[in-house]
Each structure stands twice: as structure tokens, then as C-alpha cells.
Amino acid sequence: xxxxxxxxxxxxxxxxxxxxxxxxxxxxxxxxxxxxxxxxxxxxxxxxxxxxxxxxxxxxxxxxxxxxxxxxxxxxxxxxxxxxxxxxxxxxxxxxxxxxxxxxxxxxxxxxxxxxxxxxxxxxxxxxxxxxxxxxxxxxxxxxxxxxxxxxxxxx
Length: 156
Prior knowledge:
alpha+beta, Alpha-D-Glucose-1,6-Bisphosphate, Chain A, domain 4, about 30% helix, globular
């Protein structure tokens, strides 16, 4: 059985690509206020939420269960609106040796955009299931964030 893999999902968004991407680059701490499945976030190490040396602590719900992990920025590609997050600690380490979340915000060029969420993982053993629940979680969070940003645009 294969221990490593990759899962992806693409969620269409109403928000312009730049605005959606900017939230993750400059206001990541706001995600807990926008996504019902994110219960709490806090800066664990470092002075800035958006620096590669910083570590954040997340508490969230997947499949009805509360989970925790730490997260750090591994790479930011502003030109391609791509961010790679490394997730570790807490519940992640119980199941995975490697767990990376890649967010790409795609401007479709026709007035529409999409957020593409990819998880690259390596399981600790073959008895562990792929992280399918995480894909549903990221898709739901993308829709929650998009709905909030779309409403904010209307209110202005």
C-alpha cells in the first residue's frame, strides 16, 4: 500500500482572486471569525502571523471531532497567488509524517476565480486513511470565506 499521496479540490469563488488571496497573506488570523469549523487560532511562536518563522496553533472540527495542529508558512509565491503551509503537531503527527497544504488562487480571466486546495501527505503507516475529511473541511472554509468577502464587497 502507498504511504504518500496527494488530494486536490477546486472551489469556485465569487470574490476577485487578489482579494481572496490577500486575506491569507495579510489577515490569516481572521479565518477563525469567518469559518464555523475553525474554533480558535493563536500565534504560537514568532511576532507576526505572516512570517515564515512564525508558528500558529489551530483548533478546528473535521467529521464532528475537534482537532488541533500547528502551522507554519513554507513558501509564498505572490506572482502565482500560491501559498504552501506545513501542518504538524497535535492530531496531524498521530497520522502523518508529512502534511502540506497548498492554496492556489486562480484568476480565470473571465471575471471568475477559484481556490485550489491540495494536500500532500505521507502516512505513518498503511492503516491510516487518506485525509479526505480535510479536503471537505478546506472546501467548506473556502466557501465560508468567499461568502464573507462577497458580502463585505456588497456592503461597501
